[in-house]
Amino acid sequence: MKKTIFISTCTLILLSVIAKAASFFVRILLARGMSTEAMSLYSLVSPTMLILITIAQMGIPAAISKVMAQNDRYQKPLFSALLFTIVTTVATVVLFAVFIPFLSTLLFHDAAIDQILYAILPLIPLVALSGLCKGYLLGKRHHLLSTSSQIIEEAARIAFLLFTFQRVHTFDPYQMAALAMFSISIGEFASAVYMMLCMHLSFSSLKAFPHAVPTLKKEHYDQVLQISIPMTSSRFIGSFTSFLEPLLMLALIKESMHAAMIEAYGIINGYLLPLLTMPSFLTITLSNMLLPAFTYRLYRHDAQNAKKLCVMILGTCLLIGSGCAIICFLFPSQLLQLFYHQSLGAKTLKHLAIPFILYALQPPLTSLLHALSCSRQAMWDTILGSLLRLFCVCFLSPFFQADVLSIGLCAGMCLTTLLHAIRLFGRFLHHEQGSFLPKA
Q1: Which pTM does this prediction carry?
Q2: CB atoms within 10 A of CB 226
Q3: Of 58, 418, 416, 419, which Cα lies nearest the Cα of 238?
């Protein structure tokens, strides 16, 4: 039994390494295939994409995995989650399509950005579908299939980018940024098809959905929404902060500094963050594995093994994050030159390396708080971190100019992670009768 678990864990980590390597290769393709201006435009619109993904998914994937881990009678909640996702996805696509001209002219102050925004539209239903499939597979504890889907996603995106970059030499920066944005839809489509094939969905099971909708009750929706809404709130706050950050930054500085600030924003988000967040491929994988496994032990009153699992994964994530941070701190210019064939932002990378050790702990800490039914508290931690980040951008931009981006990013991330850790530690200190679930 232990040997089987060890082999499965090693296989999962290996697949995660391959998926992250493929994801990073996509970043390299984008950085080398697009100009700095195109990368900056792509980075500027990416927060809008993240908000739409958050709204379309509504935290349903993680909610499905938790509901399925808690009990065996999950069919009705699963159908309610599917129906809710369909409604939110359709509404999001329609409203976003209507407001694209408004966003490009009044918020981004550049009508040409609308072609990048239109490239996001096909992504919304695809990411909602792939999220449902991933939540189902994680709930069934098919972690290998879920991780394999990430490899399929990145492989499809790489193939698309390699094929198109060789044939679009005359594209301007806006068209190149739109092409890069559309490549995400290609990857999500391939991932969703792969997961649906792995789930062996029969026509009869799909046919049962319309007949099951009238039988759904409020309690079936509540089982999902009580988990998904707090999780969505936390993610939406983070995405909305990222969306507001460049807009506030540009609004509070002189117009003559706009080009420099947009370039700095593109360097941080396009070049530096992929290096700083490199450990996330393992920490997110471990946290996705942690939520169902931790919940399974927790709701069966196996608190001792649940805590051992928690400590083991947090320690592993901290070790992984420390190793990556040391490399970024010691060799910033060499890393940028190796991957991107340029060394812009090397000094900023060195300054952010050590604080970003804490970032490796954020995914597992968030998963643990959700499993402990502390989603609301996790949401407030995210709010406070986001407010601190916006505070830095709003009040320090005139003084620090481009450096304010790294200051706000680091301050918000550290505050959220530390608050998560304090809440989890407090829960461990006050658990009673072999369980540290909150009292009813």
Answers
A1: 0.73
A2: 13
A3: 416
- Claim to verify: residue 64 and residue 190 sit in the same structural domain: yes
Domain of 176 in residue numbering reads as: 1-217
Phi, psi (rounded to 5 degrees) for 435 = -140, 140
Domain assignment present for 337 = yes
Residues 381, 422: Cα–Cα separation, whole Å: 10
Per-residue pLDDT of 286-332, as tens digits, reads: 666 666 677 777 667 677 777 777 787 788 888 888 988 999 999 99
Extract the residue ranges of the chain whose pLDDT is less than 70: 1-9, 12, 69-77, 201-223, 230-231, 234, 281, 285-292, 298-299, 301, 430-440
Check residue 437 and report its DSSP letter: P
Q: For residues 350 and 75, what is the distance between their CA atoms, to the nearest angstrom?
A: 50
Q: What is the pLDDT of residue 223?
A: 65
Report residue 283 as tokens: 């920490």
Residues 35 and 168 in one domain: yes
Q: In this structure, is residue 239 part of a structural domain?
A: no
Same domain, 99 and 176: yes
Task: Please state whether 345 falls in left (phi above 0), alpha (psi between -120 and 50) or beta.
Answer: left
Amino acid 123: pLDDT = 93
In whole angstroms, what is the distance from residue 143 CA to residue 137 CA? 7
pLDDT of residue 96: 92
Give the integer Cα–Cα distance in Å for 362 and 418.
Answer: 9
If asked whether residues 62 and 151 sit together in one domain, one would say yes
CA nearest neighbour of 141 among 290, 7, 284, 10: 290
Query: Nearest to residue 302, comparing CAs of 114, 149, 431?
Result: 431
Q: What is the CA radius of gyration of the chain?
A: 22
**Geometric angle at alpha carbon 114, from 162 and 87, rounded to 5°:** 90
**Which residues partner with 432 through β-bridges?**
435
Residue 227 placed within a domain: no
Domain count of the chain? 2
pLDDT recorded at residue 362: 87
